[in-house]
Amino acid sequence: MNLKQIVEAESRYLTSNYKKYPLFVEKGRKCIVYDYAGKRYIDLLAGIAVNALGYNHPRITNIFRKQLKKSVHVCNLFYHPYQALLAQKLVEISGLQKAFFCNSGTEAVEAAFKLARGYAYKNQLGEGKHEILTLDNAFHGRTYGALSATASDKYRKPYEPLVPGFRFVRFNAVDHLHASFNDRVCAIIIEPLQGEGGIHACSEAFLKAARDLCDQHRALLIFDEIQCGIGRTGCYFYYEKFGIRPDILTLAKPLGLGIPLGALLTTDAVAPTFGPGDHGTTFGGGPLACRLGFEFLKVLQDEGLLEEIREKGDYFRTELLGLKEKYSFATDVRGEGLMLGMQLDFPAREIVNRCLEAGFIINVTNDNVLRFLPPYIITKKEISKFIKALDKIFSEVAQARTEGSPAAALAGGH
Ligand SMILES: Cc1ncc(COP(=O)(O)O)c(C=O)c1O
User: Fold this and answer.
1) Strands of 40-43's sheet in order across
2) What separation in Å is there between the alpha carbon of 250 and the centre of ligand 1?
3) Phi then psi dihedrals of residue 96, to 5 deg
4) Could you give the strand order of the β-sheet that contains 262-266, starting from the edge strand earlier in sequence?
5) Helix (H) or strand (E) holding 27
6) Could you give the CA distance from residue 410 to residue 414 in angstroms, rounded to a whole number?
């Protein structure tokens, strides 16, 4: 089948949840993706922060093959070595103490909400202590609990009524955070560096106030680092920068390097809330996924990738800032490490199409923010090639601006 036939077949046989770009992926190697026509693309999106070691990393491929020959799935009635090994590693790097494994980000978030409400209930922390605070620009997933903590009406409205007991706090508004807290709050969920929301960082003052208020009100602080965690910003977890620790941490995306794997980490104090039968999943924590996760964390350590991420991230950021100086329609550059965003003053989807044509994979979030989440192994040379290509595309936009709207100028051909 060619791309046209695949597009037709998908529209006939699949529900139409996704607005896809015209890229027909065959395979990848390191940071290069090949389509079925043999065209090469430098990948600066990594499957939306999943393919953190790019494609076909030799150590990962090797572990994959080895484990395939042994077992892919072992149900949670029995033991295999890799849940405990991965949990131990995650505990070592996070400062938390216990792990629960599941299959996706949204599932980790669901587990976090159940854990928080169950903790207040089982410890008799007070009548009606079940409210969960969330931020007004947040995205935590699409199942009912996670959706109830997600602000955008676009995602929520058609599916109401949602789960009761969620209230929204204005992003980085410390006063509003204080005003929103009371003894009925059992938890607040915060994505410290927001991804889907458009690459926005929570301020230190806001995060510290959240920690203090949770302590005062015996509520739990949940950090959702599904997108920004496990190395993406140049430290294992973004919260490390602030010297504060959550009570619950949710992880997913790169953890299984493409094999679905989510995790919830928590403290010894909170973990006993989940007793046998309280929460579970058939597939979560299988030997293949956990062994890959374990190897991923070892590669991060052995290859000194965190430092590299910081260095390459600084370079990438500086180059983007250079473009921002040059083009007035680029209004902001945000983010850290290899989680970066560039805001434009017009809808950016056509820029993504232009980048694809030029052989670069990026995406857009929040309508007008170009988002860059490359594999951790991206090279400076690859970043530099991309910057040159983006510069060229932007210069065409600037040229078109003098003649009409950039969106109109960029339309056509798609
Ligand atoms: C911060 C955050 N939380 C939760 C999710 C949901 O994860 P998943 O798509 O694996 O369910 C995402 C996905 O983009 C995310 O970025």
Assistant:
1) 25-29, 32-35, 40-43, 360-361
2) 10
3) -95, 180
4) 98-102, 262-266, 248-251, 220-224, 185-190, 131-135, 166-169
5) strand 25-29
6) 9
- In whole angstroms, what is the distance from residue 36 CA to residue 176 CA? 52
Domains of the chain: 3-56+304-410 (3.90.1150.10), 71-302 (3.40.640.10)
Does the Cβ of 339 fall within 6 Å of ligand 1?
no
Ligand 1 neighbourhood includes 195 CB (under 6 angstroms): yes
Residue 414 has a pLDDT of 37
- Residue-level pLDDT at 407: 56
Contact indicator for 363, 398 with CB cutoff of 8 Å: no
Q: What is the rounded CA–CA span in Å between residue 180 and residue 45?
A: 36
Is the peptide bond prior to 161 cis by the omega test (within 30 degrees of 0)?
yes
Task: Report which of 94, 45, 379 is spatially closest to residue 231, judged by C-alpha positions.
Answer: 94
What is the pLDDT, as a whole number, of residue 121? Answer: 98
Strands 248-251 and 262-266: antiparallel
> How many residues in the chain?
414
Please list, in sequence order, all residues whose beta carbon lies within 8 angstroms of the beta carbon of residue 235, skipping any fewer than 6 positions away: 241, 306, 337
Assess whether the C-beta atom of 224 lies below 6 angstroms from ligand 1. yes
How many angstroms does the Cα of residue 396 sit away from the middle of ligand 1? 34
Q: Quote the DSSP letter at residue 202.
A: P
Q: How far is the CA of 305 from the centre of ligand 1 (A)?
A: 23
Residues of the chain with pLDDT under 70: 405-414
DSSP type of residue 281: -
Decide: helix, strand or coil at residue 168: strand
